[in-house]
Amino acid sequence: MSPLRVLHVIPSLDLAHGGPSRAIRLMAKALQQQGAIVHIATTDDAGPKRRCTPEARHALIAEGAGHWHVFPKRSEFYKVSPGLARWLRQHVADYDVVHLHALFSFSSLAAAWAARIAAVPYIVRPLGTLTTYGVTQRRPWLKQLSLRWLEGPMLRHAAAVHFTADAERDEALALGISLQPVVIPLAVEELPPPDPTGLIRQCPTMPIPGYLLFLSRLDPKKNLEALLQAMALLEPQYPDLTLVVVGEGSPAYVAQLKTLAAVLGIAERVCWTGFLDGALKSAVLADASLFVLPSFSENFGIAAAEALQAGLPCVLGEGVAIAAQVQAAGAGRAVAPTPEAVAEAIVFYASDMSRGTDAARQARVLAMSAFSAQAMASSLIKLYRDVIHFGREFR
Fold first, then answer.
1. Distance (Å, rounded) from C-alpha 113 to C-alpha 116?
2. In terms of C-beta density within 10 A (0-12 exposed, 13-18 middle, 19 or more buried), how is residue 313 classed?
């Protein structure tokens, strides 16, 4: 059997913060290990008003996670790239299947159009944009128009739509768009050994170990406010409770969060590390006692999966797509995104150490069984072969 030739298309690199490209790089490595030939086409977008540097491109090539084709973006809005569109028209027929990552993006629309013309089956991964939160936040009126005239037809003609959790799929189906859903969770990258002095350098006054950990991009969707307010509610009962916040966001929003911590009287018990990766990230995961992500919406929740891999019990907002799965496995609790519900879940573990021990054991089991790179790649290979076999007739 000849090797599969797979093209992944993503709108942005955002290499500095492990953004959209991180999941694709792990996916490419895992697929290559199972014999697939993997190429990735993208723009040089590296975040708002930023572009991928030549050094970052060379690092991509050296990493060996697929073969990359990077084209300049011509606008911030939709990340329009005529060069990418031309290349897709010329080369999409070189591949057996095309996997698109993102909606409301020029790259996905251009790739879907080129694939349809060339009769190459394509798969769409919406990245949470078809959840209730995704379609109602950030230009909802424009998204509704785009869903009707652009994304809707693209999804209907897709050989499959790749969701990463059952909850994400169910919310998308509720929109009434005709599509062929498949659920394949993302994999979690193995972290390097922790830097034993990493957190001490980041938070010299923080008692280690035993803190709460929030690890994610700092954005209103992540609902860090509820966690800060929960800590304030628990002040009389647990005055020594501490929190490490790993991640970064817009300077104005981060300042707003720090002001809230000060107003709540917990500023001295919160350490803000900014973005961490590698051995430093391993260190903060290793020394935490509980991972808390009270997000309003997450199409998967990769940070939660990383916490599970590290053996951390998780308190997750009900909008985190894997929250129900985590609770069913006994690896954590799914809660309403309110300060009171978050506080109650923290007390559940803080009041009985054996609960945390049991949940930590189940967390590792769940991560190994559901979020391994091998499991993800095997499922994707099967999906690709299925759509190649059954999807040639789509128009």
1. 5
2. buried
- Beta-bridged to residue 99, according to DSSP, are 8, 123
Q: How far apart are CA 327 and CA 350, in angstroms?
A: 17
CA distance 152 to 326: 31
**Cα–Cα distance between 250 and 256 in angstroms, integer?**
10
Q: What end-to-end distance do the CA atoms of the chain give, in Å?
A: 26
Round to whole Å and give the CA distance between 113 and 139: 24
Provide the H-helix boundaries in the chain: 20-33, 54-63, 82-91, 106-118, 132-136, 140-146, 152-157, 166-173, 198-202, 224-233, 251-263, 278-287, 302-309, 323-328, 339-350, 353-370, 373-390
Name the H helices within 64-151: 82-91, 106-118, 132-136, 140-146
**What is this structure's pTM?**
0.84
- The yes-or-no verdict on residue 394 having pLDDT over 50 is no
Q: What are phi and psi of 124, to 5 degrees?
A: -115, 130
Question: How far is the C-alpha of 71 from the C-alpha of 84, rounded, in Å?
Answer: 6
With cut-offs at 50, 70 and 90, classify the pLDDT of residue 20: low
Q: Which two tokens stand for residue 91?
A: 């080369």
Percent of the chain whose predicted confidence (pLDDT) is above 70? 94
Distance CA 296, CA 332 (A): 17
- Residue 74 · residue 82 · CB < 8 Å: yes
In 3D, which of 111, 75, 107 has the Cα closest to residue 93?
Answer: 111
